[in-house]
Amino acid sequence: MAVFFTFSSSLSAKNYENKKYECQYGSLPITLAIIPVNHKFYDICDTLSVLLWSDTGYTNLISPGSIRHVIAQDTNLLNSLIKIAEYKYSKEQRKTGPSIYSILDSTTVTKLINSIGNARLLLFPLGIGTSSLGMVTNGEIKMRLYDLKTGELVYEKDQQLLVEQGGEDGVKSLIFGLFSTARDHYYKYFFTKFKKAK
């Protein structure tokens, strides 16, 4: 059965790219940590994250599965991640350049970095939602990418997607589409800047 994806730009007003961000990395691979999502098919989300972000030698990935294990044993890490997920940057902060230090103090950020394998980049799915009705499944994913070397928010992207397939198969296809789009955002809004910085 053919699966058709339809992208929506209705959330474009919520998207943010930090135009002031300048990549300060000098060598490969880049260590990236992806925070695990809370979803019925979290195992598929974890697997896709590994497949999509480990397909080149450019990224040393700290997988969502390994971070999920750490979160289960570290209440402080969980509380820090909840603060990040719930925090909304003001218009003024978006103008001057949002930072993780607006949410957490430097000591807590250092502990966060140590807890997630000394990653220099943090890809944070703020939310993923899917719903299926008949032969149509729709959903959205919202991602933030932080540069933990500087604390800067590199981008925040919110993408809606619709797939003409119902039931669990439709949800699984949709998840693949959402994560593929999120990976495209990573390469477009971070990795291209990294290559230019080199």
User: What's the shape?
Assistant: globular
How widely separated are the two ends? Answer: 44 Å
> From N to C, what is the helix and strand string?
EEEHEHHHHEEEH
Which structural class matches the secondary elements?
A: alpha/beta
Largest sheet: 7 strands, mixed
Radius of gyration: 17 Å
Number of strands: 7
Q: Low-confidence segments, ≥5 residues, pLDDT <50? A: 1-13
Mean of the pLDDT scores?
A: 85
Fraction of helical residues: 40-55%
Stated plainly, the CATH topology is called Double Stranded RNA Binding Domain
> Any idea how many domains?
1
Assigned CATH class: Alpha Beta
Kindly estimate the percentage of residues that lie in beta strands according to DSSP.
25-35%
List the total number of helices: 6
Describe this entry's structure for a reader.
This protein is globular. A hairpin with a 4-residue loop joins strand 6 and strand 7 (152-163). Helix content is 41%, strand content 26%. With 198 residues, the protein is an alpha/beta fold. The relative contact order is 0.21. It has helices at 42-53, 64-73, 75-86, 91-96, 106-115, 167-197; strands at 5-8, 16-17, 30-34, 59-62, 121-133, 136-147, 152-163. The protein has one domain (5-197): Double Stranded RNA Binding Domain, CATH 3.30.160. Mean pLDDT is 85; it is low at 1-13.
Quick description:
The protein has a single domain, classed as 2-Layer Sandwich (Double Stranded RNA Binding Domain), CATH 3.30.160. It is α/β, with parallel strands linked by helices. 41% of the residues lie in helices and 26% in strands.
